[in-house]
Amino acid sequence: MAALALLRCLGSGRVPRASGPVRPYRAAPLRRRVRPPPLTDPEDQRAAAKRFGWLGAASGVAVERLWPSPERLREMEEEEREWCPSLREMEAALERKEQEERRLREEREQLVARSLAAMPARIAAWRQEREQMRERSRQDAARRQRLLAEAAERLGAPARPGDPRVQAVMQDLERERRRQEKRQRRQQHEEATRSALAAAEAAAASQPPPLSPPRTSEPPPVPTQDL
């Protein structure tokens, strides 16, 4: 319907009126191209290259001076070899990396195999150590009970573990026991030493005496002097 009304207005020469206020058209301002600043340092190759890129031949920059120097070319080649290696170098580096990973994996597998092989012995040693600790704990408990009974016998009254007098008596008994054990160890050492000396003397006595060299009745020769 709106299109039909517009066609009728155009055919009759009348311009349709807008229903609301009409805003004037404002075009966006043209963008001004920013030109590079003039060259202040003729030796600045970067600024010269930038100006030549903007203005081209109108910049007045000689194209020959934009090429890098031999020293700069060597530096660029070194940077390219460092950051952009060739395919052969990349393959060699990848091969070295794979070999290192393979070596580490083999070492880890060997370590796991050795650990698994030594596991039964470690478990047996742990069980033996645990049994020894339990045996020492039982011996310590029995020794404390024995000391407590001896302290009660010495005091002539029931002994309580928290009583200071009982603790003092138990400490005295423990010191006596240690001195006795030390004396026994010394006696055993002396007896072992005497037994070893007696065995050595008996072995020496059982061996025959060494044979002496035969003596001759001839007198030794007298040295003569040359006249």
Topology order in helix (H) and strand (E) letters: HHHHH
**Overall 3D geometry?**
elongated
The helix tally amounts to 5
Strand content: under 5%
> What's the oligomerization state?
single chain
Spans of at least 5 consecutive residues with low confidence: none
Average pLDDT number:
79
The structure class reads mainly alpha
Work out the helicity level.
Answer: 55-70%
Quantity of strands, as a count: 0
What is Rg?
56 Å
Please give the alpha-carbon distance between the first and last residues: 168 Å
Main beta sheet: none
Structural write-up:
By secondary structure, the chain is mainly α. It has 5 helices and no strands.
Question: Secondary structure elements and their pairing?
Answer:
Elements: H1 2-12, H2 45-55, H3 70-83, H4 87-155, H5 164-206
Task: Please tag this protein with its features.
mainly alpha, 5 helices
Q: What is the compact description of this entry?
A:
This protein is an all-alpha fold and 227 residues long. Helix content is 65%, strand content 0%.
